[in-house]
Amino acid sequence: MFDASERTPLNGRDCECRSEAVRALFRAHGLRCTRQRELIYNTLAASKAHPTADEIFQSVRNEEPGLSLATVYNTLDAFTECGLCHRIPSPQTNGPSRYDTDTNQHVHVMLDDGRVFDVPDDLAAMLDHTLPPSFVEEVERRLGIRLTGYQLHLSACGCDKTGNPSK
Amino acid sequence: MFDASERTPLNGRDCECRSEAVRALFRAHGLRCTRQRELIYNTLAASKAHPTADEIFQSVRNEEPGLSLATVYNTLDAFTECGLCHRIPSPQTNGPSRYDTDTNQHVHVMLDDGRVFDVPDDLAAMLDHTLPPSFVEEVERRLGIRLTGYQLHLSACGCDKTGNPSK
DNA sequence: TTTGATGCAAAGACTTTGCATGCTT
DNA sequence: AAGCATGCAAAGTCTTTGCATCAAA
Question: Which of A159, B9, B107, B127 has the most C-beta neighbours closer than 10 Å?
Answer without folding.
Answer: B107
